[in-house]
Specification:
GGDEF_dom; eight-stranded mixed β-barrel; transmembrane helix; 11% strand; membrane; Alpha-Beta Plaits; 29 helices; alpha/beta; EAL_sf; TIM Barrel
Length: 786
Amino acid sequence: MADGQTTVRAGGPPGPARRWWLWYLCVAGAAAVVLPFLPWTSVRTALRLLGALAVIAALVAGLRVYRPRHPLGWYLLLSGIIYALFCDLVWPLPQSVGGMSDYAATGLFHLVTYPILACALMVLPGQGRRALRFAGYTETGIITSGAAVVWWTLLVDPYVLDPGRIPSQPHLVALPMLDMVIFALGLRLLLVGGTKSAAYVLLCAATAGLLVADSALFLSTINGGDLPVLSMASWMAANALLGSAALHPSMAVTQPAPSEDDALDDLGTARIYIVTVVATPIMTGIFLLHESAVDRVTAGDVIVPVGATALTAALVVTRMRQLNLVGRRRAVALEQSLGKQQELQDELRHHAQHDSLTGLPNRELLYERVTAALAAERPGALIVLDLDEFKEVNDRFGHAVGDELLVAATGRLQKLLPAGDLLARLDSDEFAILAHDGDAADCIRIGERVLSAMRSPFAVQGHELFATVSIGLRALDGDLLTGDVLRDAYLALHAAKAAGRDQMTLFDRALSEKKLAVSRTVERLRGAIDRDELIVYFQPLVRLADERMTGVEALIRWQPAGETMIAPDQFIPAAEDSGLIVPIGEWVLRRSCEVVAEWHRRRHAVVVSVNVSPRQLRETDFAAQVFSALRDSGLPASALILEITEGVLVASGMVTDQAIRHLETLRGHGVKVAVDDFGTGYSSLAYLRDLPIDHVKIDKSFMPGPATEPGSGGPDPTARTMVKAIIDLAAGLKLGTIAEGVETREQVELLRELGCDRAQGYYYARPLPADAAAKLLTNAEWGTRV
């Protein structure tokens, strides 16, 4: 809205109607200008009465159209105007007092109008805002007192007391004083109600017009004149301003005022103090000096100005006390606010540095404490541990059980630690202990107590769960950075997990060197494919029934330029951990299919067995990669065997489900699947019946060695029993069997006797380059070691 108002109540008039106040102000203002110059008294009187009726109509229209939420103040204004009009119309003016003008006859009764107007102006800014109902009266008193001094020294004393012109109408003396009060209350509207309200600005201007009108009437009457032109024009102007205020849309808007303290403690209020406190004593002093100089000092000359000045000073002191109280309240409020802010910051910091599930400090707080301990060169150690096989708990029983297990483990760990040591949760199942002020032996004993305590089962939601831990320990060293300590502790933890879990490993330089060597291996391995340093070797698969070569297993080798060949066990683990096994595995698959497809084109019907990493099976497009390799090479799907580990099929979760879907899709197109190193990883055999498997490979660790007792006449009977059990189990499930690590003729004879299908090992041939393996295919008979 152009007037800067905030909102108008729903149901208000359309845009053009909201400009009624401006039309009213223009018309009524023009009448106020014209009225004094009309030559006919009756016309002036009629026009003045018509102006009063117009104000009443404007107030009624504003109340009906805008429907203010708190209309009491406007109703009081309406009552005051109606009463004034009643006095003008009803009272028999010419006959009431002989020789008096019609205005003088009704003047005394008009005085009642001022208390009504004062009540209206007092009510308006505080409606709906209880805190502002009594605000601003100190300022009003200061203004009124200062104005009284001005009025007395400039009007009453020089024009009434000094000439001895005591008016016969006492209301003429009271009118300007009452107008000062009304004007002060008008200023209070702006101080308390806000200058953004156009209606309040118009009302304040109306009170100023009323003050000018009554002051002009006072001076004119004292000097024996008629109703002055200025007085009539000011009355009409005040009516015009009052009516336009009632028609302005802001009359219904409750302005978003600040608190009482903020409403009064502003620059405008400060200016009032300065002007009043400075001007009032100065004018009083000048007045008294002037009166003394002309020897006209009377009691009235002293009592009124000095009394008003003293009242002004008292009110200023009162306001200063109020401001002092305001300052104290604000100081208390600020202190409370700062205290709450500090509490909130502490709470936010606590949440930021503590785990929401266990309430333990998190990685951030642990980092701070480790940094402080290193800076102070305090002895101690950082112990990092995680729960073994925690993922299995979540997968089997759900995360709710897993969370409760973590809480239970937290409680058990807290009971083990000496006072002052810090227990933190770093990740899902990772914890850390910052052991303070103990030598290496003390810290090791803490780790051993943790290992021992965590081997006892936990009772969680009706389940008996085990949560052993793997621990890495790194002693604090003031020469290290916090990040170095954490890195070394994790290296020790990974070493403990690699060693079989449920144990503690102390950090030493060998671990760091090993990690560095692995990092260097990974860096070199990244470019091995591009540099054509990887080679596929092939080890023959022999059918034991006639000892003829029926296939090969593809085995990767790494031959850096100018160096000796690197064995797979020296780089495959690094490739697994780094994820490089995925592109390397795809390359091996493609290369193997290309070589064996060429043998098929030479009418050598052999199969190729290719190892597949669990990381490869996690890829969503693994099956598509296999089909692409077969299609590009021309190798039949039936000539490909994919070797996987038991863990891929026995584990659970989305990754395993995806791997099984890949294998089922591939088997549906003729690709075979073999389980490598069968029997070395898991005791459950149910997956052999239910999951997509075609062959099992008997691990070389089960191969019988030479006879353990002289005269026994054969290999180890225990090993024979185990191999027989695996072959019989596979035969019962209609699965093929392939024996690995065959190195002696006795092993060959035993495997044939037990019914094993195929074998591979050094007895027949070591892994060979592709061209050497191709030459073996030309041999029609196998009876001697290659």
